[in-house]
UniProtKB/TrEMBL annotation:
Native source species: Adlercreutzia shanghongiae
Gene3D superfamilies in alphabetical order: 3.30.70.20
Name of the protein described by the UniProt record: 4Fe-4S dicluster domain-containing protein
Lineage: Bacteria, Bacillati, Actinomycetota, Coriobacteriia, Eggerthellales
InterPro entries: 4Fe4S_Fe-S-bd (IPR017896), 4Fe4S_Fe_S_CS (IPR017900), ET_IronSulfur_Cluster-Binding (IPR050954)
Name of one Pfam family that matches: Fer4_11
Amino acid sequence: MAVQYGFFVDGTRCVKCFSCEVACQQWHGLKAGTWMRRTVFDTVEGAFPSVTRRFTSLSCMHCENPACVAVCPVGALSKRDEDGLVVGDASRCIGCRSCALGCPFDVPRYREDKTMDKCDGCLSLGRPSDEDPRCVLTCPTRALHFGPLSEMEALARAKGAARLEGETAPSVFVAHRVKPISES
């Protein structure tokens, strides 16, 4: 494999505007409110007045060792050599849901036609390799970044971020706000 691509999610900049979700839904022809390719998660910790609220926009982790690819019995999922992105081929999918069961991040979703769908970095839209996915292009606060994992790691390091952990080696770094909202 040439270079592994991934995401850096800067939760210190995310305002939970849902632009990334809406852009993904519109560009991919998904119904509004469909939890398919990209989702903004909201985590609240603590008790008043020391509450920490975190927003994290996540999609497929494009893992270095994707469990979904390993368990697909018909090869409908594959990992691209040129950028490490995990992509699906709906024409090969038999709807067995093995990928959903194998994914530790609960990423693969099923369309009404009973075939799997997941983030492919907007490759299915014909995204050129020198352009960012639509979620990244749409983010008004520049909380989402996409590119070679080494570049994402450098951006993440500057924000005190950490790589998501797991046996599959997810290709996502996340930074979070560290102070409670009342102290910001």
